[in-house]
Design brief:
D-Maltodextrin-Binding Protein, domain 2, alpha/beta, 286 residues, binds 1-O-pyrophosphono-5-O-phosphono-alpha-D-ribofuranose, five-stranded mixed beta sheet, Alpha-Beta Plaits, metal-binding, single chain, magnesium, ATP_PRibTrfase_CS
Length: 286
């Protein structure tokens, strides 16, 4: 089934990240079908084979060359210490890795955890951070449910991922110190085998990721206000300006970050823009 002339892309076999990777690849125009929870799926029309793996094995298997590229969490790449190249960030799956302690504990910094017990699924990152801060701790290395370990009497503090903070609140824990910020990433083996296919895959995925981040805004504005409008909407590279029948007016098309669209529309109205429309982008090549 698997072929040496095809680029092997490792993706998570289950969980949130598996759904996310599948959606991204489909939106990027890759057509594939996974048979009966199989290990492999061939992409039609592109020399790519998908390999379904455990998310935390993907960095190591990519460094070893079992797969050429992989979609996984930046946190797992760092913990594995795998020597891989990060090709792109997806802008999703954002989280923080942090030292957390009980709400009511009078402790101010991670350095004060010297000699204490720390439960974590990230022993390597934790050990290195403590060493950089002149501390050493007894690490209790676990695969999950780390936030329960203080109540179970196994640890004085934990190092865990925090996304919304609701798990911490439910367990009466607070962040003591953040170690790092991570998100879902695309990694590549540093021999860059089949680099042409890899680059075309990156281009396709970037098209989707940028389109998810931006909207296309179109509006009409009096020509005398064009400079002011361009300050509000400078665009990704530069805005497209078209003439209108009325020579005193022009029409502008420009990319705007989704999170800023409402504010930008309000500012354009104040300048005197009319017919301000937001259009959703599905894909792009810039
Ligand atoms: C992760 C992490 C925390 C939780 C944080 O667990 O380990 O427990 O999410 O998210 P929150 O800040 O939004 O509450 P995950 O659900 O991946 O399962 P795990 O416990 O098996 O690691």
């Amino acid at each position: 089934m698997i072929s040496d002339s095809h680029l092997r892309l490792g993706i998570p076999s289950k969980g949130r990240l598996s759904d996310l990777a599948t959606d991204l690849l489909s939106q990027a125009g890759l057509r594939f079908r996974r048979q009966n929870r199989g290990l492999f799926a061939r992409v039609s029309g592109m020399d790519v084979d998908l390999v379904y793996l455990r998310t935390d094995d993907i960095p190591t298997l990519c460094a070893e060359g079992a797969i050429d590229m992989g979609i996984t969490g930046g946190d797992l790449v760092q913990e594995s210490g795998a020597a891989v190249e990060q090709r792109m960030k997806f802008g999703v799956g954002r989280c923080r890795l942090a030292f957390c302690v009980p709400d009511d504990k009078e402790i101010k910094s991670a350095a004060e955890l010297d000699g204490k017990r720390i439960a974590t699924s990230f022993p390597n990152v934790t050990r290195q951070y403590l060493a950089e801060h002149g501390a050493q701790a007894h690490l209790v290395s676990l695969a999950g449910s780390v936030e329960a370990m203080i109540q179970l009497g196994v640890a004085d503090a934990i190092v865990d991922l925090v996304e919304t903070g609701s798990t911490l609140a439910a367990n009466r824990l607070r962040i003591l110190e953040e170690i790092g910020h991570y998100e879902t990433v695309l990694i590549q083996n540093d021999t860059r085998r089949l680099s042409g296919i890899a680059d075309s895959l990156v281009q396709r995925l970037e098209g989707v990721v940028i389109a998810r981040d931006y909207s296309l805004i179109q509006y009409n504005v009096p020509r005398r206000e064009l400079a002011a409008a361009e300050k509000v909407t400078p665009g990704f590279n530069s805005p497209t300006i078209n003439s209108l029948e009325d020579a005193d007016w022009c029409s502008v098309q420009v990319m705007v970050r989704r999170g800023e669209v409402v504010d930008v529309m309000d500012q354009l109205k104040l300048i005197g823009a009319t017919a301000v429309f937001e259009m959703t982008l599905n894909n792009c090549r810039l």
